[in-house]
Design goal:
The structure is a single chain. With 160 residues, this protein is mainly alpha-helical. The chain has one domain (30-150). The protein contains 7 helices and 2 strands, in the order H-H-H-H-E-E-H-H-H. It has a two-stranded antiparallel sheet. Helix 1 (2-27) crosses helix 3 and helix 6 (115-127) packs antiparallel against helix 7 (129-150). The N and C termini lie far apart (53 Å).
C-alpha cells in the first residue's frame, strides 16, 4: 500500500504545480480574466477557448464561432428533404468539451440564475438536457467571442 500512497502523493504534488502554472497564465492574460467573468468558465476553459480562437478578429460574426467549434447541427438537404442531425463535431474537440462542461456547470441547480440559464432550462424542457447543454455551449461560445471583441464583462441581466 505504501508504494501506491507514494505514487498518489507524487501525482498530487505535480497536479498542484500544474494548477499553479495555469493560474499564473490566466492571471497574466487580460483576455482570459475577461472570459472568466462568465458563469461556468474557469481557468482551463478560458485558456482553451483563448488558444483555439487565438485572434477574435478572424471571425467577422460571433455566430461563426459556434460553427468553427462544431457546435451547429449537421444538415442534409436534397429536394424536398431537410433533415437536421447531430452536431458536426468539426474543430477543436477539447474546446468543445470545455464549453460543454461549462454549460453543465451553468445548468446545475446551485448556479446563480441568469437569462442565459433560463433560456437553457426552457430548451431542456422542450428538447432534453443533453441538447440544452450543447445549445448552451454554442451560445456561450458566441457570447464569449462577443465579450472578447467588445472588451466587456459578462452581464448577468443581459437578454439571452
Amino acid at each position: 500500500m505504501n508504494p501506491l500512497l507514494a505514487g498518489r502523493e507524487a501525482l498530487m504534488r505535480e497536479y498542484g504545480r500544474l494548477h499553479r502554472l495555469v493560474l499564473k497564465a490566466v492571471r497574466s492574460d487580460p483576455a482570459c480574466r475577461l472570459l472568466m467573468t462568465m458563469p461556468g468558465i474557469g481557468p482551463v476553459s478560458a485558456l482553451t477557448f483563448r488558444s483555439t480562437v487565438d485572434d477574435p478578429r478572424r471571425f467577422l460574426h460571433s455566430q461563426s464561432v459556434g460553427a468553427y467549434l462544431g457546435l451547429t447541427p449537421r444538415r442534409y438537404q436534397s429536394g424536398e428533404v431537410d433533415r437536421v442531425g447531430r452536431i458536426t463535431k468539426v474543430g477543436d474537440g477539447e474546446t468543445r468539451t470545455a464549453l460543454f462542461e461549462a454549460a453543465n456547470v451553468v445548468l446545475r441547480p446551485s448556479t446563480r440564475w441568469s437569462p442565459m440559464k433560463a433560456w437553457a432550462v426552457r430548451v431542456a424542457h422542450r428538447q432534453g438536457s443533453k441538447r440544452a447543454k450543447v445549445a448552451l455551449a454554442r451560445k456561450m461560445a458566441v457570447v464569449l467571442h462577443r465579450m472578447w471583441v467588445d472588451g466587456l464583462e459578462f452581464r448577468w441581466t443581459a437578454v439571452a
